[in-house]
Amino acid sequence: MTKREMYDVIESVFSTVAADKEGAEDILAMVAKERAALDRKNEKAKERAAEKRAAGDELRAAVKGVLGSEPMTIGEIIEALGDESLTPAKITARTRQLIAAGEVEKSIVKCDGRKLTAYTLA
Hints:
Elements: H1 3-16, H2 21-66, E1 72-73, H3 74-81, H4 88-100, E2 104-111, E3 114-121
């Protein structure tokens, strides 16, 4: 049961079966205040989620813009973007999204005797 559902139950009980009218009004006012707080909290969470999605979309577009016909590893993509705050995990996540969308292809290349995953535009 969510908080909102609990507040609905409390409101229905105190609006129909209230022996103490003044006490019931206080409780109903508290329920309304708590619901408003939940609404504000939910709205803020939606705003933060939208900001994160927008930042992810921008990074995905930047990764796609760096890629070309030559295979690039995650390290090379980070170096090409020139942003020290980027991590391999962030770039890998964006390349996976681009692969799922059919915009990027993944391949295995040998570099310094190691096998690395490289990405190119589809």
